[in-house]
Specification:
Elements: H1 3-8, E1 17-24, H2 31-42, E2 44-52, H3 54-61, H4 69-77, E3 84-88, H5 93-100, E4 104-108, H6 115-125, E5 130-134, H7 142-164
Parallel strand pairs: 1-2, 1-4, 2-3, 4-5
Length: 165
C-alpha cells in the first residue's frame, strides 16, 4: 500500500505505527513542512509535531527563528494532519521521547547517512523507536526563504540608511 493510499484510509484504519513524532523548527512554514506532516500522519494513528523552542533552534542552527514560538506552535497545531503539538525544549530527542512516548520519529531524508542521523538511529534503537525518513523538499526550505528575505531587505536597509544621512 502506498503512502497516498494510507492517507486516504479512514480515521479508524490501522497504520504501521501508533504514535508518531515529527520534530522541526517549522519556521516560515512551507510546503516541505506540510509534506513531512502529511507523510508522517499517513504512517501513524496519532501524530505529535515537536516544535523546537526559539532557544533550541538558535542552539541547533545558530540563529533564532523569524517566527516566534507561540505563532509557529499555533500554525503547526492547526494543520489537519497534526493531532497534538509539543514544545521541544531539550536538545536530546530521547529526553523528549520520555515525555511524549512515541513509536516512531519522522525526519527529512537530508538527515539520512549523516553523523547526526546515525546518532539518532542508535539512540532510538536502544529504546525500540524507529526512525523513518521522508523525502526532503529540496526546492523549498526555511533557510532558502530566509536568504531571499534577507536579500530583499538589504537594499531597503541601505536606502533607509542613505535617506537618514
Amino acid at each position: 500500500m502506498t503512502q497516498q493510499d494510507m492517507s486516504d484510509l479512514g480515521p479508524t484504519a490501522r497504520r504501521p505505527y501508533r504514535v508518531g513524532y515529527a520534530p522541526g523548527a517549522y519556521d516560515l512554514f512551507h510546503i516541505g513542512h506540510l509534506n513531512i506532516l502529511r507523510h508522517a500522519r499517513s504512517q501513524c494513528d496519532y501524530l505529535v509535531a515537536g516544535v523546537v523552542s526559539d532557544e533550541m533552534a538558535e542552539l541547533a542552527k545558530g540563529r533564532r527563528p523569524m517566527i516566534p514560538l507561540v505563532e509557529r506552535l499555533e500554525i503547526v497545531r492547526s494543520v489537519k494532519y497534526v493531532d497534538a503539538a509539543f514544545v521541544e525544549t531539550v536538545p536530546n530527542k530521547v529526553e523528549t521521547w520520555k515525555q511524549v512516548r512515541f513509536d516512531v520519529l519522522f525526519k527529512g531524508d537530508d538527515w539520512r547517512g549523516t553523523a547526526k542521523g546515525a546518532k539518532l538511529e542508535r539512540d532510538f534503537a536502544a529504546v525500540g523507536v524507529d526512525v523513518v525518513y521522508f523525502p526532503y523538499t529540496v526546492h523549498t526550505s526555511s533557510t532558502q526563504l530566509r536568504r531571499a528575505l534577507d536579500a530583499l531587505a538589504a537594499p531597503l536597509a541601505e536606502a533607509v540608511t542613505a535617506e537618514r544621512r
